[in-house]
Amino acid sequence: MISQSTTAGRFVLSQASGATGQPLIEQTLGDFFRDMAARHPGRDALISAHQARRYTYSQLHAEVRRLASALLGLGLAKGDRIGIWSHNNAEWVLMQFATAQVGLVLVNINPAYRSAEVEYAINKVGCKAIVTMPSFKTSDYLGMLRELSPELATALPGALKAARLPTLRTVVWIDEAGVGDEQPGMLRFSDLLARGEASDARIDPIAATLRNTDAINIQFTSGTTGFPKGATLTHRNILNNGFFIGECMRLTSEDRLCIPVPLYHCFGMVLGNLACVTHGAAIVYPGDGFDPLKVLETVQAERCTGLHGVPTMFIAELDHPRFAEFDLSTLRTGIMAGSPCPIEVMKRVVKDMNLSEITIAYGMTETSPVSCQSDNDTPLEKRVSTVGKVQPHLDMKIIHPETGEVLPVGQSGELCTRGYSVMLGYWGDEDRTREAIDAEGFMHTGDLATMDDEGYVNIVGRIKDMVIRGGENIYPREVEEFLYRHPKVQDVQVVGVPDQRYGEELCAWVITKPGEKLVEEEIREFCKGQIAHYKVPRYIRFVTSFPMTVTGKIQKFRIRDQMKDELGLEDARSA
Questions:
Q1: At what angle do helices 57-73 and 29-39 cross, to 10 degrees?
Q2: Distance of alpha carbon 247 from alpha carbon 333, whole angstroms
Q3: Using CA atoms, how far apart are residues 224 and 533, in angstroms rounded to an integer?
Q4: 137-to-116, 121, 283, 502 alpha-carbon distances in Å
Q5: Is the peptide bond before 340 cis (omega within 30 degrees of 0)?
Q6: Which residue, 84, 187, 338, 481, shows the most beta carbons closer than 10 Å to its own?
Q7: Is the confidence at residue 464, as pLDDT, over 70?
Q8: Angle CA(124)–CA(130)–CA(132) in degrees, nearest 5?
Q9: Given 3-state DSSP classes, what are the helix, strand and coil percentages for the chain, each rounded to the nearest 5?
């Protein structure tokens, strides 16, 4: 443990260790969920409002076991990877707990992914099966899978052999109104579930072989190498993180948490689902995607006591023309995270939405995710100007990015964290894992932070060039690597520029190949259907050179500053 250098109770060095009075949970997620269902069998566990489906804890546990049985029936075995490519719904939760029950590794796939991205994700971790929504708005998931694997047309369900997706054997589509019953080569989710038996004698012996340090989940996080990295998390990682998040929120079995944030992120899956389940609280989904009106309607109808969201979600709810119609008096807690919260927004959330105990959280996928969080004892000023203090059972320090020296309080440096929450590593990428986690077990976040003399942490910038657009983390290098594929592009640099609505937007500076001509629409058309919509640059400029240092290093900050001047933008970053 790191010693906390203090003077009269005040921190001197930027290092701290979380409390250890409450022991860590050492069960697997499956065993913990079984015990929670036994303690609260008749309490609401899950309400999916848009699907009109409700489960008590005992009902959800039985359905989870039935799905676990059905997944074993597909020939899947402990350690196999199975993808989930979907927005929020009951099937997502069933997959989360059923895979954990029998040691399968759930692979979260962003619903905004397009064909090139999902192909990479499936092949990177070797998914043997994938469960997907048929479609959502402009995304045709089944169409993209058929594009990648034309063999589906003639394959028997569960016997796919696709050249471009060599490990994939089974595609399961989630029941959706208006989708034809016959999907060649694919299984309907309800038909798969009907094959299972909650009493399947195979389940418990497999569960008994699982360790809480086994991999349970892979979440893709964009990498500076241009390709997403699969952060690999364990039962111990996410179960404990969910528990301590819920403790900061003071959740109990009386609480009902409205979760409009996506499940494919840790925000929905851990800060939402697992914070609830570790406290016997009810999970409530207002819709498959975010809709402020549905959130307000669901909070009132289900008498929710908690609400999660990124700042832009809360703003949309507060500014909805029908906001005043709804009774939000049952609300008290929740989490605002994903980007810095303006103090005026926080005041409105506390006053107008009754969220007097709302908390702020900070983390990253690689740390399961939360490392710091405020609680309802944190003064409002600290809740909006900091991300709280270090979580229990974690060590944190702020170091000089070059020397590694722990810095005095108040000085900006790289935030590093260590403890139960740090991932196993990046799937199939030992080199990148060693770059991220040092020999002492500290995860180097790449974020610049300060710590005050009370131990409150403030995120002030990013060492890496990450852009946060509406809560989505984007690494410019990934977008650059994709744009390099355009036959007319010679070079490209991507930066984030301030945006009033999303916090930041992408801007691409493009140098075309000699003799070629390009227009903005060609670039956007090239991106369409190949990369997620939020990665498509909003601003595109064609240039003949980039600003550089005398040693030839491109100065991205000058590109950013020039765009700010050109567009008349004020900087929306926290630093």
A1: 150
A2: 11
A3: 19
A4: 19, 22, 25, 20
A5: no
A6: 84
A7: no
A8: 125
A9: 30, 25, 40
For the chain, domain boundaries:
6-24+230-282+303-462, 30-211, 467-567
pLDDT class of 242 with cuts at 50, 70, 90: very high
pLDDT digits (tens, 9 = 90+) for 282-325: 999 999 999 999 999 999 999 999 999 988 899 889 989 999 99
Q: Roughly what angle, to the nearest 10 degrees, separates helices 29-39 and 90-101?
A: 120
131 DSSP β-pair partners: 84, 172
CA pair distance 239, 212, nearest whole angstrom? 9
Q: Which two tokens stand for residue 524?
A: 């956007």
pTM equals 0.85
| Residue indicated by tokens 């976040």 | 445
CB 373 within 8 A of CB 383: no
Task: Give the separation between CA 206 and CA 217, rounded to whole angstroms.
Answer: 17
| DSSP for residue 488 | T
Burial annotation 221-257 (CB, 10 A radius, 16+ → b, else e): bbbbeebbbbbbbbbbbbbbbbbbbbbbbbbeeebbb
Q: Report residue 529 CA to chain centroid gap.
A: 22
Distance of CA 383 to the CA centre of its chain: 22
Q: What percent of the chain has pLDDT over 70?
A: 94
30-211 against 467-567: fold identical: no
Taking CA atoms, 421 is separated from 280, 332, 369, 463, 486, in Å, by: 22, 27, 7, 22, 40
Q: What is the CATH number of domain 467-567?
A: 3.30.300.30
- CA dihedral of 189, 191, 195, 198, whole degrees rounded to 10: 50
* Contact (Cβ atoms closer than 8 angstroms) between residue 170 and residue 158: yes
227 Cβ partners below 8 Å, 6+ apart? 120, 124, 478, 481
CB 382 within 8 Å of CB 456: yes
**30-211: what CATH class?**
alpha beta
Structure tokens belonging to residue 137? 């708005």
CA pair distance 372, 387, nearest whole angstrom = 6
- Let me know: does 245 contact 367? Beta carbons within 8 Å: no
Instruction: Kindly report the length of the chain.
Output: 575
pLDDT at residue 265 tops 60: yes
With the CA atoms of 73, 74, 78 and 80 taken in that order, what torsion angle do they form, in degrees rounded to the nearest 10? -170
* pLDDT tens-digit map of 195-221: 999 999 999 999 999 999 999 999 998
* Number of neighbouring beta carbons within 10 Å of residue 72: 21
CA distance 29 to 278: 10
Contacts of 555 (CB under 8 A, 6+ apart): 546, 547, 548, 549
